[in-house]
Amino acid sequence: MIDTLHISNYALIDRIDISFAPGFNVMTGETGAGKSIILGALAMLLGGRADTKAVRQTDAKSVIEATFKVTGYEAPAAFCRQNDIEWDPDECILRREILPSGRSRAFINDTPVTLSILQSVATMLVDLHSQHQNLLLASPPYQLQVIDSLAGNTEERAAYTSLYNVYRTALHRYKVAKREIANGRADEEYNRFQLTRLQELNLIAGEQEELERDRELMANLTQVTDALNDVTEAMSDGTPSVMSLLKIVENRAAELTDFIEDAPQLLERIEALRIEAQDIADTYSAVSRDINADPARLQEIEERLNDIYDLERKHKVDSVEQLIEIRDNLAASLLNIENSDDYLHQLEDTARRAKKAALEAARKISARRQEVAGQFAETLKERALPLGMKNLRCQVIVSQGELTPDGIDTVEFLFAFNKNQPLMPVGGTASGGEISRLMLSLKSIIADKMQLPSIIFDEVDTGVSGDIAARMGRMMKAIAENIQVIAITHLPQVAAMASTQFKVYKEDTETSTTTRIISLTPEQRVEQIATMLSGDQVDEAARQNARSLLNTQN
Fold first, then answer.
1. 329-338 pLDDT, tens per residue?
2. Any residues with CB less than 8 A from the CB of 456 and at least 6 apart, and which?
3. SS3 at position 207
4. pLDDT (tens digit, 9 = 90+) per residue, 245-265?
């Protein structure tokens, strides 16, 4: 349940701190006192759009923070742990801030979170029922959600969603493969021509770079030959040469081994130097012998490179390796086309089996929905009857169709409020007051299925009075036996039902108007309800009526 609520620097509120109680809480006050402002702040805390115009003092941030008692509620705990948010098994704190810059920030247990994460957790902690939410009664997705809540289909829906996603993935793979194979068949002749050209060239990775080096060498053959001749002459062919001089050095150094302490080690180093020099000389000599000034070889290199360059231009690549990749992909694609019938059959069979599994799960869910739908319609009539809707007729139609993320069903609520009226969707038949009473009746039915700590009603009793108002109050009080209820009301009959009553009022100073809220004592409740009964002129008779109402309702 909501334990505390803090609002600061928001609209007419400079700062308020409210401690709510378990059971049935009501907020009362004159029109324009600020009840809707408090509700708007709560809506923003629960993930609604941040309105920078609502910031009272633009040089300071606006803060809305609520503490929830969450002992025993596993859904938000599991969600927070999955999203690396610290979790206290007894208490959860939601906070929303609007900075002077207009930027909004959200926190759960002091951990910064995205707005979507905040919304996800908030919907597990409180159901905010405003007059706008009455429109949901005409919404097929909401109607389906109500039936699923009563049917207890949460686990079944989760299992179905998994099967449905497997089916959609398999179907997508089949459709993509079918399209690609169809496109491949259309281009098959051209692709075979391309593949033949690539295969005929018999490409080898790295050959382009090697050919380009050979061409560069042959284009500068005179310069290279002269340099090689000079090197080989100096290393081994000349008189004297590096090799002959090193041999002399080695022989003379050998004569010093008996006279110099380090001579053996120096001799070994000279020998190693001579061996390395010999290897260098042999390598240059081999290169010199292998250089061929054959013009035919140069022409062969040019033709090979031209063939490679031509294919690279056609395929818009710049390396042999990329051409090889294209060649292999074309070969694989054409092989797939050759084996496409078997491949498509496998994919189609996989999708068919996945659809069958999803359909079986959907039918089980549908059977439970069908079973609950009739029961719900009768229960809703029974709950709404004491609220002055004696002629109400209700029918819930569950129709089967194609597989969707919600199963195979569409749900439609049909109502008639008068004897001579045909059953119709609620949007075209009901007044605002009738829809409010229907929604309250509906909430009373699903309250114990909601698995939420709190529910907030914003003037759900609009458009009713007298005995009907008292009955709506008793219905909210009954809901409060299972979960915390917070209601905003103008009706004394509803306010008298509450275990805790708050008064919202405006306070003027010389420079500003500020919204305040206080928790009323028993004596203050008498005075407030007397005011709600009689208006500004509160006399002892009005107070006596208020006491009687409080005593009767509690």
1. 888 878 777 7
2. 39, 42, 126, 127, 128, 129, 485, 486, 487, 488
3. helix
4. 888 888 988 888 888 888 889
Are 450 and 148 a contacting pair, CB within 8 Å? no
Q: Exposed/middle/buried for 271, CB within 10 Å: 0-12, 13-18, 19+?
A: middle
Q: What is the torsional sign of CA 42, 46, 48, 54? A: positive
Q: Which among 122, 133, 13 has a CA at the least distance from the CA of 66?
A: 122
> Where does the pLDDT of residue 27 fall: very low under 50, low under 70, confident under 90, or very high at 90 and above?
very high
Is the separation of the CB atoms in 174 and 394 below 8 Å?
A: no
- CA–CA separation, 295 vs 300, rounded Å? 9
Omega prior to 522 cis, within 30 of 0: no
Whole-number Å distance between alpha carbons of 149 and 379: 14
Tell which residue, 40, 43, 49, 48, has the closest CA to residue 13.
40
Output the DSSP codes for 96-122. EEE-TTS-EEEEETTEEE-HHHHHHHH
Question: Model confidence at 134, in pLDDT bands (50, 70, 90)?
Answer: low
What are the strands of the beta sheet with 13-19, ordered from one edge?
13-19, 2-10, 62-69, 91-98, 104-108, 111-113
Compute φ and ψ for 46, nearest 5 degrees: -85, 10
Q: Which residues have a Cβ under 8 Å from the Cβ of 485 and sit 6 or more positions away?
A: 23, 24, 25, 454, 455, 456, 457, 476, 477, 479
**Per residue in 443-455, is it b (16+ CB within 10 Å) or e — as a string?**
bbbbbeebebbbb
Residue 529 parent element (H or E):
helix 522-534
Characterise 539 by phi-psi region: left (phi > 0), alpha (psi -120 to 50), beta (else). Answer: beta
Q: Which residue has the tokens 């029918």?
A: 395
Q: Is this model's pTM higher than 0.85 or not? A: no
Q: Which of 393, 368, 371, 367 is nearest to 380 (CA)?
A: 393
Q: Which of 534, 187, 167, 129 is nearest to 349 (CA)?
A: 167
Rg of the chain (C-alpha set): 43
Sequence letter at residue 270? I
Q: What is the DSSP letter of 89?
A: S
Cα–Cα distance measured from residue 554 to residue 552, given in angstroms and rounded to the nearest whole number? 6
User: What tokens does 76 get?
Assistant: 């938000």
Q: Tell me the two tokens of residue 545.
A: 């009526």
Check residue 520 and give left, alpha or beta (phi > 0: left; psi -120 to 50: alpha). beta
Say how far apart CA 369 and CA 401 lie, in whole Å: 14
Terminal Cα-to-Cα distance of the chain (whole angstroms): 22
